[in-house]
Amino acid sequence: MLSPLPLLPLIKEWVFLMAPLSWCGFPSWRWRSPVSVTLPSLELSGAIKNPSLLKLLQLESCRICIRGRMSEQNSPVQAASLPRQDVQTNPSQAANPVLLMTQTDSRDKWSKKMDFLLSVIGFAVDLGNVWRFPYICYQNGGGAFLIPYTLMAIFGGVPLFYMELALGQFHRTGAISIWKRICPIFKGIGFAICIIALYVSFYYNTIIAWALYYFYSSFTGTLPWTSCDNPWNTPNCTNYFGKSNVTWTTFSKSPAEEFYTRKVLEIQKSSGLYDVGGIRWHLWKGVKTSGKVVWVTATLPYIVLLILLVRGATLPGAWRGIVFYLRPDWEKLMSTAVWVDAAAQIFFSLGPGFGVLLALASYNHFNNNCYRDAIVTSAVNCLTSFLSGFVIFTVLGYMAEMRDVEVEDVAKDKGPSLLFITYPEAIANMVGSTFFAIIFFLMMITLGLDSTFGGLEAVITAVMDEYPHILAKRRELFVLGLITICFLGSLTTLTHGGAYVVKLLEEFGAGCSILAVVLLEAIAVSWFYGIQRFCNDVKAMLGFTPGIFWKVCWVAISPAFLAFIIVSSLLDQPPLMLFDYRYPEWSMSVGYLIGASSFICIPFYMVYKLVWTPGSLKQVRKS
C-alpha cells in the first residue's frame, strides 16, 4: 500500500500546475475530479483507490485553494459565488470535488483600502480635469453638454473602468502577462500599453517641469508675470489691470502670455520642428527634481480647488463666467462633434487602457468590492471635472470684466495655455497673489505626479510580472533604467521648440492608438474570453453576477462607443496648430508613425504567435 505522506509535495505541485487549458487562455481555477488526471511520474490510478489518500488529496487541495483565495480576514468562501465551468465528475466522487487554482497569495496587497482608492483617484483626476473639461464644456453647448457627457460616462466610460478593475483584481497580474490567462494571442495589447505609457511620460514630465518652474518663480513679493518691464517682454505686451486708458487689440499680449512663451518656453528661439534649438537647462532641473514633492497627498488638489473656488466666486464679474459656463445651447446637441468630444473627454478622463487600473487593482484583496470602487472613483472624477469648471470660469468672468470684453474672447485659450497663461494672469492681479500662485501650481504638480507615477507603475508591474525570473531580484535596477529612459525621452521636449514636440506627442502618442487598444481589449474579454466566464470571475470575487446592463455594455455598447470615437477622429482631422505655428505635413506623418509604433505590437504578436506556435489555430489560441 502506498503511504500518502510522501505525496504531499507532489500533491501541491499537481494542484497548482494541472489546471486544464480553455479555448482561449488559462482559467484561474476549475472544479475537477482528481481521478480524471494522471501524472507521468507517478502511477496514481492505484493510489487514489486508497480512501485515506483520496481524502488527504481533497483536503490538501482545498486548503491550498482557500489559503490563496481568502482575504486576510479569513472570510468564508461561498460555494454559490464560485463559477462552475467544464464540470466533469464521476457520480461516485461528485460529492467530493476538488478545487484547483493557479493564483497564489504571495503578491503584495494594499495595506489600507483608502490607499487604493486615493491611488486610483490620483491617476484618474489629472491636469485634463482642470483645463480640458471646462473648455470642452463651454465649446460644446455649456450646460447642454452635460447630457452627452453623462450618457457617454454611463454607457461607455464607467463600464470599461469597472472591467479593468475587475480584470486586474481577479487575475492579479500586469498588463502583459494577464493575456496568458485571457486570450494569449492578444498579448501584444500589453506591449502596446507599455509603449504608450512611455510616450505619455515623455511629455507629461515636461508639463510638470513647467509647473515646477512657475512654482519656484512664485516665491517672490511680485510675481514675474505681473508687469511688462522684464527683459523678455516685447512692445506688444499690454498690462490692462488697474488701468483705465488701455485698449486691448488683437496684437496685444498679456504679461502672463509673454512670460510663458518667451521666458518659460523660450519659443522665440525656435523656428519650428525644423529647428527645435538647444535644451533649456532650468527646465532640465525641474524634471530631475520632480520626485521631491511626493509627500503631498492626493487630497491636496481638492483643498486647493475649494480655496480657489471661494476666492473666484468673490471676484467682480465672476457671475458672467458661471453663466457662460452653464448656459445651455441645445442646438449644438444635433452636432456629431459634440458627442465625439463628450466620449473622448470621459474616456481620457477615467483612463481605461493605460494599464494603470490593471496594475493598481492587482494588489487588492481577492474579495474587495471593485464594483463599488468603480462607481465611487468614477463619480469623484466626473464631479472634480465639473467643480474645476466653476474654478476656471469664475476667474475668466473676472478677466472679461477687467478687459471689458466678452467671456468667450477671454476663454479662447485651450490646453496648457489655460493653466499657464489665463489663470496665472488672473492670479497675478488678486490680493494675496503670491499665496494663490503657490497653491495653484502646487496643485498642478500633485495632479501631474499622481498620474505620472500611476503610468510608471503600470509599466513596472507589467514587465516585472512578465519576466519575474529575470527581474525579481533586480527591481531597483529596472526602475532606475525605466526612469532613465523616461528622462532621456523627455529631453526633446525641453528644447526651445520643445512645446511643439509636446503637442505632437499629446496628439498622436496617446490618441487613436490608445482608443484602438481599449477597443481590442473590450472585444478580447467580451467575445473571446467570454462574457459569461468574465461574469463568473466577478461573481467569484464579489458574490454576485453583474447585471444585464453591464453585460450589454461590455459586449456591444462600449465597443461601439470606442469605434465611434476612432472613426470620427480619423475622418475629422483639423490642422495641428500651436500658437501661430502650423505644423508641416511631414510632421503629421511623423505623428502617425508614433501612433502606429505602439499599436503595431498587436498584429505583430499575433503573426508571431501563429507562425512560431505549432498546432492548429485553436491550439495556438490556447497556448
UniProtKB/TrEMBL annotation:
Keywords: Disulfide bond, Membrane, Metal-binding, Signal, Sodium, Symport, Transmembrane, Transmembrane helix, Transport. The chain crosses the membrane at residues 116-134, 146-167, 188-216, 302-326, 338-363, 375-398, 418-441, 477-502, 508-531, 552-571, 591-612. One of its GO terms (cellular component) is neuron projection. GO terms for biological process: amino acid transport. Na(+) binds at residues 122, 124-125, 129, 349, 381, 447, 450-451. Residues 1-24 form the signal peptide. The keyword ATP-binding does not apply. Disulfide bonds join 228-237. InterPro entries: Na/ntran_symport, SNS_sf. Its main location: membrane. PROSITE patterns: NA_NEUROTRAN_SYMP_1, NA_NEUROTRAN_SYMP_2, NA_NEUROTRAN_SYMP_3. It is found in: Membrane. GO terms for molecular function: metal ion binding; serotonin binding; serotonin:sodium:chloride symporter activity. It is a multi-pass membrane protein. Belongs to the sodium:neurotransmitter symporter (SNF) (TC 2.A.22) family. PANTHER family: SODIUM/CHLORIDE DEPENDENT TRANSPORTER, TRANSPORTER. This is Transporter. It comes from Chrysemys picta bellii (Western painted turtle).
